[in-house]
Specification:
Layout (H helix, E strand, L loop, with lengths): L2 H16 L13 H9 L12 H12 L1 H11 L7 H8 L10 H11 L9 E2 L7 E2 L3 E8 L5 E7 L4 H21 L8 H15 L2 H14 L6 E2 L12 E5 L3 E3 L3 H6 L4 H19 L2 E2 L7 E4 L8 E3 L5 E2 L3 H15 L3 H11 L8 H12 L12 H14 L9 H17 L5 H17 L1 H18 L3 H56 L6 H20 L1
Parallel strand pairs: 5-10
Antiparallel strand pairs: 1-3, 2-3, 3-4, 4-6, 7-9, 8-11, 9-10
Helix pairs in contact: 1-3, 1-7, 3-4, 3-5, 4-5, 7-8, 11-16, 11-17, 12-13, 12-17, 13-14, 14-15, 17-18, 19-20
InterPro entries: ABC1_dom (IPR004147), Kinase-like_dom_sf (IPR011009), UbiB (IPR010232), UbiB_bact (IPR045308), UbiB_kinase (IPR050154)
Keywords: ATP-binding, Cell inner membrane, Cell membrane, Kinase, Membrane, Nucleotide-binding, Transferase, Transmembrane, Transmembrane helix, Ubiquinone, Ubiquinone biosynthesis
Membrane topology: Multi-pass membrane protein
Length: 546
């Protein structure tokens, strides 16, 4: 490790200990050595004993910076894994991170606008942030151009060096995983960390987020499922983003949703539909769907509509990944574990020599107990842990391109659990996926493909005779080349055969002449002619081999 990495590691350990997070370590025999080591660090006492454990965990993650805050945001959606006093505190990391000075934010906005005063473009700029998160914070204002209420998003100052320092350390730790764990190489830790780093760095470019939001808004234009605020791209830059201000109920405020008369069951089901629509219909999904980025419209509570913001992290899947995942989901829903096992082998995610029968039985053992239960009784965290153990047994590799999808699915589950614990996730998703699969392999898919490619074929139609002529001419030239190569190979084979024959004759003559010289010296020069003839035959054979 470099001195900088060691300093950062010490800072992380010191932060955890000074916030007393060592108290969260379970007291088991496995953790005995760790707890003894903690006792030896007597100069790092818990300085926040007056605060509850959940608050100390939140403050520690917040103190460590954006990489750790993002981790806390993901944990906050898993209320099945943590008691309420911890989950509630982690939820505050979604949009209530300590803000930075609003005057500094104003200076950054003016710099992004080309050193122009904020008041020249905006009215009623609020120096106090509306919300603050791990990467950026937002301020409210009104556009002079059209009088619309907007929010201005600005990146936290000097955040990139902190992210890079943490990522260097995480890369170093990830490099140790294959050495420390027997199956560490299968986990592909460096690739997973590289994917995570890419998403964090992408979040620092607000032009990218603007483009993502515009694309997502277009995908759900006039949809009753999801509304994405309008982005005013003329005012956006790499460090600043301006978009429509929305008014909605935070999806985590269940009491307010119920007070507004929201159809909670339909809302939860639509959350699942939004996720699968983004993944399978659009191949473009919001990959940061924690509750701080999701609101519900006040209007039409009987027909609720989501409002999505913060599109800094998005994911996409290629055609093969989508097909593979959809078929896997449907096989799971139908409890066709044999199909699941075969799909894993066919995809190459497990070795081709895997015993399909054993793999099928292992998947059945993990997944069968979860069906026909309401969402409140299903812990995807527990299921994923069991599947991980199964994967380790059968040498299944982690797929970095699906890490974002897995994280988003966990977010969706967490939101669904809060809104409507009785939600049947399988019943909601299965019809959607079956319809999508039929659409991909049936007559509609063929007609759609013909429609998409028809302009290309029409464009190439006048060139068809010329293309056919060129193809025939190239075929003729290729056949001529093949015949010439075959003829050269045959000539070479003949020369090789003649060379072997001459070498054999030469060896026979040399051996015969040598024996005659030894046994019949009275024959004079006659044996010597045998040796000379054999040498000449050898020489000719050697020449023919070159």
């Amino acid at each position: 490790m470099t001195p900088g990495e060691l300093r950062r590691l010490y800072f992380i350990i010191r932060t955890f200990l000074t916030y007393g997070l060592d108290e969260l370590i379970p007291k088991t025999r496995i953790t005995l050595a760790l707890r003894i080591w903690r006792r030896m660090l007597f100069w790092l006492p818990n300085r926040h004993k007056d605060k509850p454990a959940g608050e100390r965990l939140r403050l520690a993650l917040q103190h460590l910076g954006p990489v750790w805050i993002k981790f806390g945001q993901m944990l906050s959606t898993r209320r099945d894994l943590f008691p309420p006093q911890i989950a509630d505190q982690l939820a505050m990391l979604q949009d209530r991170v300590a803000p930075f000075d609003g005057r500094l934010a104003k200076k950054q906005i003016e710099k992004a606008m080309g050193d122009v005063c904020v008041e020249s473009w905006f009215d009623d700029f609020d120096i106090n942030p509306l919300a603050s998160a791990s990467i950026a914070q937002v301020h409210t204002a009104r556009l002079k151009e059209n009088g619309k209420d907007v929010v201005i998003k600005v990146i936290r100052p000097d955040i990139l060096p902190v992210i890079k320092a943490d990522m260097r350390l995480i890369y170093r730790l990830a490099g140790w995983v294959p050495r420390l764990l027997p199956d560490g190489r299968r986990l592909r830790p460096l690739e997973v960390v590289r994917e995570y780093e890419k998403t964090l760095i992408d979040e620092l470019n607000l032009l990218r987020e603007s483009a993502n939001a515009i694309q997502l808004r277009r995908n759900f234009d006039n949809s009753p499922l999801l509304y994405v605020p309008e982005v005013y791209s003329d005012y956006c830059s790499q460090g600043m983003m301006v978009m429509e201000r929305i008014y909605g109920i935070p999806v985590s405020d269940v009491a307010m949703l119920e007070k507004n008369g929201t159809n909670m069951q339909l809302l939860a089901e639509r959350g699942v539909q939004v996720f699968f629509t983004q993944v399978f219909r659009d191949s473009f999904f919001h990959a940061d769907m924690h509750p701080g980025n999701i609101f519900v419209s006040y209007e039409h509570p009987e027909n609720p509509q989501y409002i999505g913001i913060d599109c800094g992290i998005v994911g996409s899947l290629n055609k093969d990944d989508k097909r593979y995942l959809a078929e896997n989901f449907i096989a799971f829903f139908n409890r066709d574990y044999r199909k699941v096992a075969e799909l894993h082998v066919d995809s190459g995610w497990v070795p081709s020599d895997t015993n399909v029968e054993e793999f099928e039985f292992a998947i059945r053992t993990v997944c069968e107990p979860i069906f026909e239960k309401p969402l409140s009784e299903i812990s995807f965290g527990h299921v994923l842990l069991n599947l991980f153990n199964t994967a380790r047994r059968f040498n299944m590799e982690v797929q970095p391109q699906l890490v974002l999808l897995q994280k988003t699915l966990l977010y969706v589950e967490g939101v669904g659990r809060q809104l409507y614990p009785q939600l049947d996730l399988w019943k909601t998703a299965k019809p959607f996926l079956e319809t999508w699969i039929k659409d991909q392999v049936g007559i509609p898919a063929l007609l759609r493909s013909l429609k998409e490619k028809a302009p290309f074929w029409v464009e190439k139609m006048p060139q068809l005779p010329e293309l056919v002529y060129d193809s025939l001419r190239q075929g003729k030239q290729l056949q001529h080349s093949v015949d010439k190569i075959a003829q050269e190979i045959q000539v070479s084979r003949n020369r090789q055969g003649q060379a072997r024959y001459l070498l054999g004759i030469g060896a026979t003559l040399i051996l015969s002449g040598t024996l005659l010289l030894i046994n019949k010296p009275e024959w004079g020069w006659f044996p010597a002619w045998f040796v000379a003839g054999g040498g000449f035959a050898w020489l000719i054979g050697w020449v023919r081999t070159t």
